[in-house]
Amino acid sequence: MGKTTLAQFIGKNNYQRPVYLNWDFREDRKKILDEKFESEADLIIFDEIHKYKNWRNYLKGEFDKNKDRFDILVTGSARLDLYRRGGDSLLGRYHYLRLHPFSEREIMNIDPNIEIFKELKFAVHKYAHEIFDQLFQFGGFPEPFIKKDLKTLRRFHNERLDRIVREDIRDIENVRDLSSLQVLVEILPGRVGSLFSANSLKEDLGVTHKTISLWLDVLERFYYHFRIYPFTSTTIRSLRKEPKVYLWDWSQIDNEAARFENMVASHLLKTIHFLYDTEGYKAELHFLRDREGREVDFLVSVNKKPWMAVEVKLSNKEISKNLKYFSERLKIPFIYQVVKEKGVDFTVNGIRAISADKFLSGLV
Fold it and tell me: pTM, whole model, 2 decimals?
């Protein structure tokens, strides 16, 4: 969790005496092992504590002893999620919150204002388009976004990919052919937004379909990419089950249209994770495609019921015929065609064409 996000969390929850302890610092590590905490602390933040072999049982004990005295916040890398799944000692004692890259509304510092199955409420901000442009170029990860420097962005890309493949994955997963895995990592940005078939990569990588599927699962667990799947319904004839692939860091993508689509996908994913993690709604992100090849980029559903469909285009203001088709077949309440061009906002036959900087301000 970045310092800015952590400060916002502390402020919004009115903690007066938070205490930050990092397992990587020797003095903090000693305090953790000695269970030595400030008497008036109302929040204890354990960072990187999953590097401690018995961290789950440790946290279970601290929670059971001190749940009436202070709250506990645990932060860490993707490894924390993997280790969390390794046992049930914390079952019923925690809420798991996924931390996403910065989004437009978060940078505006405006709290989410979303009601399921209601029209999105868009924020008004005089720098909305400037924020959008910066996010589009530098992505939502804190270091490159805050510095807004191309050299920093290039170094961040290199170091992040090297850390994921040659450190995190190597240390935890049993992947022998790291060089071929690295090739897969370099291939994925070029496949963003299109139907993804592991079979098509067998010759490129020289490995089996089973191995590619395993690697995709590993990379997804380490938050390199995410996949969305077609929405199934008795009212549409869906042909393929292949997913579409998107990256957590859309700034890696060279193609402008694919990067734009990925950026919108990331904002939608953050929104459904927010609804699931904090509000308990079974929100999901899909895309629409039928046997005739008609396709819409995204569909957000809650409890398997369509809520909004989103088609993404760089500048085309002509309403997509596929949007109209699927909206009628699936009875989707809200339909958006999101364009990168600024200053667009009109409605035709219940379909709203809207600029991305305005649309994204209505998400989380």
Answer: 0.83
